[in-house]
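User: Sequence recovery, please. Input:
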């Protein structure tokens, strides 16, 4: 799992090294001060108060004795091979302390001090990381507030001294929290606590100069008590390792939920000033982490709401939700709300509709959302019967209930019916009860907790959270629809930077993407010869890597019908280009057969410097500029998966024929996207591909790439 072996038998990275952090057998507090409330004294108190059974060593300049323990004045007085050193000294002393830990073969260190990359001192942080790495010492931090293990009670926090409330170590029952913000970590844990979701570990990762997200995720994947992993992150420092760890979590059936600010310019600026982050493109990151099985959410409310569902129901649904309500108005609002989220509401199956007709009043219509009207006030068993019908329907992936509970006696009857239905199903269920500040009957609360029913006080938050877990379930299924990278032969030689169109088209041809018949002419006679071979009419395009805007330069001439037109075009093209960009030497002129028209698409890819390649596909022409109707996709998706994505475009109606236009070859468009992804994965020097337009011809007739731009590393 990407572990780096140490000479002392530990590791600087990976799940194994996290054992020394979470379950150490010996701990040294470096920079200790006996002053009450100091970081060093808080660290010691957190160890003793929580009954740490291992050896404790103290190192501080003042020496002496504290609580019967000798305070060493030098790190070199420590025994060799201490499992964990907690640094409670300021930034100015960290480098020297790390060098001392290297000499004493300390296995792992955690650094509280700030004053590194988060304030622009990245070089100082990099130097510290190198000392630790070269000296075979694991490093957590700097700028780390600490962490807690709520299973064993081990507590390595510095800000305050607290008694850890240990949880019962039931298999897959708790959430682990990782945060690059210590303050936000506390908010997340409190939010989970209010939902009766136990937290197995709480970890402030700080600047992650050493161990990082991938190591934490791997450790929690292997931890028996942890059911889900919750992450607040401002910079993923090792994306490839993190995505690999996320895929291992997905394979283990442990949902990973993630919030990452920085989708706006101001958000990115705030991130940079907080942890010294160097964030990549937010949309690219979202695409690739989702593909790795991570539930990517936008707000803390969504994080807590979705985490509650994911922890109690680790297998996310794929189908849309069923709704149970007493209100026709809620049915309409649910349709509107989920339509904005692009989540479908599946229709009720004929079998369940027939079952419900047997028990529902004649004036009510069984469908999804299921409006029971006010009849349950007199016939409370309808709630359980309705819930059972929705959960029994294979078209429903989950259920959201939004009803007024009424007086306590009626509320308990409703709850009894719901619990009986839930007992026979593994589908996620959220019971949304409006009236946020109105108290619920204690008997109702106790029974809901006993049955582990998720109670929400907001219908909108319930629907948004259920949408998130459903999108996650679909992403997990889509992640199985991938293709292996295939090496290519016959590729042209690339120069550095922007390539001329003719070079780009040779690359597309080698990748198996259809381009117009034609060739590069280096003289007027060659142009005539090529045109005669491929047949008229033809198009002629001036070719040079430094000619960025051929059309504006007058370097593209269309519908040339004969030899005379070709010869005239040869002269005209060169005159136009010379006038537009004096002194530019052309590679030649690309002569191609005019292609039959089709629906315009754009297919492309870019290699993000942080996250790697993604593929872009969408409707081209003026629509790409007007509404930006594109899908951003992982580079290894299969054709079948990409076809599904194309039908999520806002303009998807155009794909199957619109107002007399023929249905287009959607599968051929998807195949181009597959081949572009393969090109990016197998040719690492390519930084960008832009095929615009791609003409999609009528179904069964394929596509043609009319223009191609490839940019390689400078």
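Assistant: Recovered sequence (714 residues):
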């Amino acid at each position: 799992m990407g572990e780096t072996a140490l000479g002392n038998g530990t590791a600087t990275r990976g799940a194994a090294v996290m054992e020394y952090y979470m379950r150490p057998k010996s701990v040294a507090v470096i920079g200790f001060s006996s002053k009450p409330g100091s970081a060093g004294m808080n660290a010691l108190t957190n160890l003793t108060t929580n009954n740490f059974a291992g050896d404790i060593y103290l190192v501080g300049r003042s020496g002496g004795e504290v609580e019967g323990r000798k305070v060493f004045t030098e790190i070199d007085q420590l025994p060799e091979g201490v499992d964990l050193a907690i640094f409670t000294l300021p930034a100015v002393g960290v480098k020297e302390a790390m060098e001392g830990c290297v000499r004493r073969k300390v296995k792992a260190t955690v650094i509280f001090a700030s004053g590194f990359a988060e304030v622009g001192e990245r070089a100082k942080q990099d130097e510290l990381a190198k000392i630790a790495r070269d000296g075979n010492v694991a490093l957590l931090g700097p700028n780390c507030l600490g962490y807690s293990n709520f299973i064993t009670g081990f507590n390595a926090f510095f800000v305050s001294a607290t008694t850890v409330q240990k949880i019962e170590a039931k298999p897959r029952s708790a959430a682990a929290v990782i945060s690059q913000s210590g303050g936000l970590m506390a908010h997340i844990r409190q939010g989970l606590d209010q939902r009766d979701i136990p937290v197995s570990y709480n970890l402030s990762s700080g600047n992650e100069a050493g161990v990082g997200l991938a190591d934490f995720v791997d450790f929690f994947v292997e931890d028996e008590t942890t059911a889900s992993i919750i992450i607040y992150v401002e910079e993923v420092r090792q994306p490839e390792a993190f995505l690999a760890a996320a895929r291992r979590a997905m394979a283990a059936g442990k949902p990973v939920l993630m919030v990452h600010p920085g989708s706006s310019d101001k958000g990115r600026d705030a991130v940079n000033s907080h942890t010294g982050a160097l964030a990549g493109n937010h949309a690219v990151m979202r695409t690739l982490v989702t593909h790795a099985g991570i539930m990517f959410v936008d707000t803390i409310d969504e994080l807590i709401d979705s985490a509650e569902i994911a922890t109690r129901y680790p297998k996310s649904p794929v189908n849309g939700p069923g709704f149970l309500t007493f209100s026709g108005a809620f049915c309409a609002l649910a349709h509107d709300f989920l339509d904005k989220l692009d989540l479908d509401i599946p229709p009720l199956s004929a079998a369940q509709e027939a079952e419900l007709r047997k028990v529902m009043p004649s004036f009510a219509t069984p469908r999804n959302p299921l409006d029971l009207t006010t009849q349950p006030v007199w016939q409370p068993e309808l709630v359980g019967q309705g819930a059972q019908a929705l959960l029994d329907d294979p078209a429903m992936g989950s259920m959201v209930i939004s009803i007024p509970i009424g007086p306590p006696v009626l509320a308990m009857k409703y709850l009894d019916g719901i619990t009986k239905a839930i007992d026979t199903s593994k589908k996620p269920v959220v019971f949304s009860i409006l009236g946020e500040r109105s108290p619920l009957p204690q008997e109702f609360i106790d029974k809901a907790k006993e049955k582990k029913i998720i109670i929400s006080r907001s219908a909108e938050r319930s629907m948004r959270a259920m949408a998130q877990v459903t999108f996650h379930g679909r992403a997990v299924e889509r992640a199985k629809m991938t293709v292996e990278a295939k090496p290519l032969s016959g590729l042209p030689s690339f120069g550095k930077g922007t390539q001329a169109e003719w070079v780009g088209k040779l690359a597309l041809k080698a990748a198996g993407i259809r381009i117009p018949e034609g060739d590069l002419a280096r003289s007027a006679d060659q142009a005539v010869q090529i045109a005669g071979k491929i047949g008229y009419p033809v198009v002629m395009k001036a070719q040079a890597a430094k000619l960025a805007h051929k059309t504006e330069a007058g370097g593209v001439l269309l519908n040339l019908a004969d030899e005379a037109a070709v010869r005239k075009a040869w002269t005209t093209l060169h005159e136009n280009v010379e006038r537009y960009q004096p002194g530019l030497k052309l590679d030649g002129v690309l002569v191609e057969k005019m292609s039959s028209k089709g629906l315009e698409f754009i297919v492309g890819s870019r290699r993000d410097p942080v996250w790697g390649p993604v593929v872009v596909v969408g409707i081209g022409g003026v629509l790409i500029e007007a509404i930006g109707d594109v899908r951003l996709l992982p580079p290894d998706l299969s054709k079948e998966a990409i076809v599904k994505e194309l039908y999520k475009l806002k303009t998807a109606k155009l794909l199957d024929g619109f107002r007399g236009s023929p249905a287009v070859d959607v599968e051929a468009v998807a195949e181009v996207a597959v081949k572009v992804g393969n090109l990016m994965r197998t040719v690492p020097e390519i930084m960008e591909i832009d095929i615009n337009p791609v003409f999609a011809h009528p179904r069964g007739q394929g596509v043609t790439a009319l223009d191609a731009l490839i940019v390689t590393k400078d």
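Residues 1-10, 270-280 have pLDDT under 50 and may be disordered.
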